[in-house]
Amino acid sequence: MARKFPKHLLDTERLTIAEISAVLNLAKKYAKQNRNKNKTINKLHGKTLVNLFFEPSTRTRTSFEIAAKRLSADVVNVAVDQSSNKKGETLLDMVMAFNAMQVDAIVIRHSESGVPQFLAPQVDAAIINAGDGTHEHPTQALLDAFTILRHKKTLKNLKIAICGDVQHSRVAHSNIHLLNKFGAKVRIISPPYFMPKDLDKLGVEAFDNMKEGLRDVDVVMTLRIQLERMNEGEFAVSFKEYYQHYGLDHKKLAVAKPNVIVMDPGPINRDVQISSELADDPKFSVVREQIELGVAVRMACLDLLLSEKKN
Ligand code: CP
After folding, report:
1. Ligand 1 pocket by C-beta < 6 Å: which residues?
2. Scanning 204, 278, 299, 300, which has its CA 20 to 30 A from the CA of 5?
3. Superfamily of domain 17-136+291-306
4. In this predicted model, what pLDDT tens digit does every residue of 57-88 receive, in sequence order?
């Protein structure tokens, strides 16, 4: 049987519209199933997934674990701090050890951009990128698209504003690639020091003013300031000052469409990128829905990556 889905899930930049649509369509079934009393099916019985996270995670790591278990796969969460990585073992040797154990998928998060792409050609297991440096976080963009489509009929021509630290955000990059493929009108709103260096290649409209950028938008995504990717002293303004100009609150949101939805991939730094009140306001915020649907989207990804016969 010919493969309808790539062997690895590395980025949204190279996913086709058909591949993305396959994930989003299958996720509908799993979103329903996840509201059942019995949430588990036998789809991936006998498969093994390794979660290998070199950076902290609440949502992505747990969500992959729950997704795999709901499909009856076995899951191993590697405690990187307790592994032989601490004794000088290279990342490749570590991953090849898991590969030798005949695991079927390795979900990896790493601070260096390009790590999943480097590993993919060297292993038999499917490599799934759970966030590589500032590069991509493909399953976040897939779950974001799935969430938007729950509220809006189509992505085409939707005005979507991505606000904040775009330069360091793998979530922003994955979302921009995906949303552009589906004809959304993506704009970014960032202070000059967080504007991406490759702005001219991204195919987005750029604003450095929230009032102008948020006018008439259908969707707003806020982003955390990624201090861990900056040198000390690089972020030179106070959180209070940043929030005043770039923190999303009800007042700034008033120029958006009345039925605008507000998204944030998390983790949320309350009253920095978004007001605490707005993050919790069910009239606008779909943050918890994003987390719920993330499980369904990751089930769909695992199903498509692992159920099909490999070439
Ligand atoms: N959105 C996201 O990647 O969250 P975590 O860092 O908690 O996994």
Report:
1. 57-60, 131, 137, 140, 265-267
2. 204
3. Aspartate/ornithine carbamoyltransferase (3.40.50.1370)
4. 999 999 999 999 999 999 999 999 999 988 99
